[in-house]
Amino acid sequence: MPSSPAASPYARDPILDWPMYRVRDIAAGAQMEASLLQAWIYRKPLVVPLGPYDPGSGGTGSVRLLTLRRAIAIAITAELARLGVAPSRGASIAFSITDERLPQATQHGLALEQTLFVIYPSGEMVPVRSGHPDEPLSVLASRDVPGQSTEVSTAVLVVNFRAASKSMRTALAKRGQKVGLIG
Asked: What is the separation, in whole angstroms, between the first and last Cα of the chain?
């Protein structure tokens, strides 16, 4: 993970990468206690890794602001934790989506708001453009994705970036935060 914006593997997005969101607002958007989120981002070992545009802590008593990219990653992490995935594993999956796979997917023409990520038991993660929001999972999981394994899995994990993004943006807006459109 890069330690500074200069080392970032992706260009700063004007909507996703400006630190403007308070931890307590992000916690509310992720439907979790603010104290739990603070533990995830302050206590070592960190559960939620911060990205290159999320500033470090300003010290005791200062308000930490995070980016929308991180807020969405936290929402994904919290949802995966509610489903029984260990928070550190969920955060690793979320970071991989928001900071690694998402920039790659958009470079290859996938619209942010139409991207689902299918995670296989092997750890292989495939971004897939959703044709329709009600598309059956069986169709999504059986798609032929060029360059990917054709091995059949009995279970896959699907993360809907659109739903995570929309849910977090709506919650932040309800708390008086300015949130732009994505994708």
From this structure: 24
Q: How far is CA 40 from the centre of its chain?
A: 15
Report yes or no: 127 and 105 within 8 Å, Cβ to Cβ: yes
Residue with tokens 């991989």, as numbered in its chain: 96
149 Cβ partners below 8 Å, 6+ apart? Answer: 120, 122, 124
Structure tokens at 70: 């991180």
The C-alpha atoms of residue 37 and residue 23 are separated, in whole angstroms, by 7
d(C-alpha 4, C-alpha 135), whole Å? 39
Percent composition of the chain: helix, strand, coil (DSSP 3-state, to 5) = 40, 10, 50
Contact criterion met (CB below 8 Å) for 53 and 18: yes
| pLDDT at 3 (0 to 100) | 42
> Consecutive sets of 10 residues in the chain, 183 residues long: mean pLDDT of each?
58 88 95 95 90 80 87 94 93 90 65 69 71 54 52 72 87 86 57
pLDDT for residue 119: 80
Asked if 66 and 50 touch (Cβ cutoff 8 Å), the reply is yes
CA dist 98 and 40 (Å) reads: 17
pTM (predicted TM-score) = 0.80
**pLDDT at site 7:** 64
